[in-house]
Amino acid sequence: MEERHLLDVALENATDDSEQLKVENSMSYSALLEELELEKHKFEQLNNSQFLSARTETNVFETLGRHRFLNRSAMKLVTLDHIFQWTQGLDRRQSFSFADICGGPGGFSEYLLWRTQEHDQVHGFGITLKEAANNCDWRLPSKLSDLFEICYGEDGTGNLYSVANIHHFRDVVRKRYPNGVDLVVADGGLLDARSQSNQTSRPASSERYIIARGLRVGHPTSKLVDILENTLDQSTNDAFQLTFLKNCSPMHEDGDFLQYMAKVNGVIATSQIQACQRINQYATNKNKRKTCEGDTDIDPEQYFQCWKLGRIPHQ
Questions:
Q1: CA separation (Å) from 66 to 81, 228, 266?
Q2: CB count, 10 Å around CB of 177?
Q3: Domains of the chain
Q4: What InterPro entries does the annotation carry (predicted)?
């Protein structure tokens, strides 16, 4: 029997109550979110070294590290590429192009260029905040510079709250690829999301990825893009709200969709709470014993072999 994803199993076991999702201990969804916020706020009581140590010791997948790449973001794309075969299924004689949005310092792009650098024609484009804090500007290896074109938009800031910068980047890409690139990736967020209480990419986060296929110039989604750009153009950075979604009656009338979203959010929030509790319990545990029974060590080499990453190069 094929192994099933834990989220699928959890969703099947969740209640079918369409009025209100109830989880463990008959807790309502709103109460679940309150508990999650409470656990995350406890991170603010930890200094950076306490937090990092506790996070590492309570998540076995931290041992995977970043392999040969700039950061762990590359490993996210390694996993997705293994599932969807964006580059691994390509023949070396095939060309490959991509755009990386809000991608600094460049983990996604570094992986894509490393994987396809021996193809006949490879080219990437990237836009991110220029000279951003936390070393979030591009830091790709110099040997990849000929394959990657950096753009900071019309005003040179890389700020994608500017419609002019969005259009400038679009025009740069279309000048070389009028019909669009083969793959677009985006992993951006506000700098505040890098704080401990808003951490990403770990079990204590609600991070998820949306995969879309077949999107090209002239696709019906261009109407949605126009709406988003008009909304952005009329807003300031601090007041960008998608108010038009509040009156989206078809979505509100779709009971199956709303029920699915409630279940998914409930399952993920429950997992987050458990992960946050493990971090907080470990940080305050003087004996530093692991607080999650049943966790087993993993062998990174098995994952690297499965993902066809080869051996880690000597640093």
A1: 16, 34, 30
A2: 16
A3: 28-58+253-288+298-307 (no CATH), 69-197 (3.40.50.150)
A4: mRNA_Cap_2O-Ribose_MeTrfase, RNA_MeTrfase_FtsJ_dom
